[in-house]
């Protein structure tokens, strides 16, 4: 079946002459609104309360010459959130291994509260919680970068952590999977582990939520590795901190033998591998053996497709009873897995092939044997017996203590800095912050490499700083060629005419179900571009008017990808008995 799908046109070179004024009212509506409000209060707050909190660093009136103020001094980030600082929050840390009931217990408190917010690291988790609360007759809005589903009478919100509002007051708030976010440990090796969940980039959103959410009760769920850091960070906020430790609700058994042959695969198995190509090759091997059909889950699949694949795997009434997945299963999906089988304990992390870290192995292995599921006892093993010692030792080891949390200058600081250095573009401002930021020992500056690539692109355009900032913090995958082209075209057209019509960027084309992994990857990238359009359209409504077209095009992408996943038999299978090879492929 053929569908009409828009394709990305060739990007024309930059070279725009007209400087256009941003529509402030719509610009601030979403991402920038909390920071803007904070900016407006910043001077007043620090003038009135800065000294009470012992924050001489931020004792500035906002009236003096900006150049005399050190904007790169980020040593007291708790003072950036005046509304939260007016509260004495009760902070409850729910810590323990995977599948120990941390989120379940925190959500029970949220359900009982008069108003509240759940902040999760992924859209999938925000969707699940909104669904759960609405089902429990607690009306709950869903707000992610790309969605805003408002429910009548709702006093509760389920959001992705970037959307956490630090200007509202709540009775109860949850920040889930906090270890995925607050980072970091000493060794370079451990620093890399964070790429799994994008914490190097996203850590600052969690730090912002941790310091900035103004709730009477704040529940933090995650790994015990975060406890010392969170306790230390919250010493200066005046909050009360309580730690609740959990045990795993169902056993997780590390097996002594590997899975040697495809005939050993059984219902409920999840084979974990780290390249898209290997995922499809393993799927093919298993399906060719004739006993099982496989669902697949990996990071660059659209979230809607990932959910559909997970739902099909969980549904005991159909034949898709085996899962082949990447580490994207580590968080966010409720899966009926009986046994995790690691095809390898190495992964390509974007730069090189490295061993999985203890935290990654535990997080992935812990997905087996979900409490009160079809498979209450989880098992974990490998395809290669050489990997078993590392698997077993990792499962016994504690996760390395997280020593520092990600931080990033707020828009307010960047803007004030820009006023003091009007000739600098956003790229240079970011570079300056990264190189000169003064931090206390609990923090590190989040990795802004990708943001700087995006900043270099938008600096070519006649845009105001807040426009540039908005594009730079957008969820663009700047390292993906098609996504990068789409991003550049959106920014360029916006700077030229203020109105970005989807059809000016994407041309009509008739596409069929992809036949090769390359065609599939292209479709995944087009989905990312459409997702970016939706994100921009929620913040610049008048300038990105085709949200509905983008949403329907996204659905077509999902349908085509799902049809590929069902029909795919063209990729050569990979024999299970193959020797252990170092995988060097990029995902
Ligand atoms: N007291 C309980 N009664 C019924 N079901 C429970 C209870 N506690 C937990 N569960 C269920 O057990 C499963 C695991 O719980 P939960 O998701 O809270 O674990 P978690 O510790 O947050 O795990 P993860 O680290 O993987 O996020 C969920 O399906 C949850 O609904
Ligand atoms: Mg949880």
TrEMBL record:
Query: Quick check: keyword Hydrolase in the entry?
Result: yes
Q: Where in the cell is it found?
A: Mitochondrion matrix, Mitochondrion nucleoid
**Pfam families attached here?**
DEXQc_Suv3 (PF22527), Helicase_C (PF00271), SUV3_C (PF12513), Suv3_C_1 (PF18147)
Co-factor(s): Mg(2+); Mn(2+)
| EC number(s) given by UniProt | 3.6.4.13
Where is it predominantly found?
mitochondrion
Q: Which reaction does it catalyse?
A: ATP + H2O = ADP + phosphate + H(+)
- Subunit text: Homodimer; in free form. Component of the mitochondrial degradosome (mtEXO) complex which is a heteropentamer containing 2 copies of SUPV3L1 and 3 copies of PNPT1.
Task: Give the protein name, as stated in the record.
Answer: RNA helicase
What are the residue boundaries of the Helicase C-terminal domain, all occurrences included?
257-415
Per UniProt, the keywords (alphabetical) are: ATP-binding, Helicase, Hydrolase, Mitochondrion, Mitochondrion nucleoid, Nucleotide-binding, Transit peptide
In its UniProt entry, the species of origin is given as Brassica rapa subsp. trilocularis
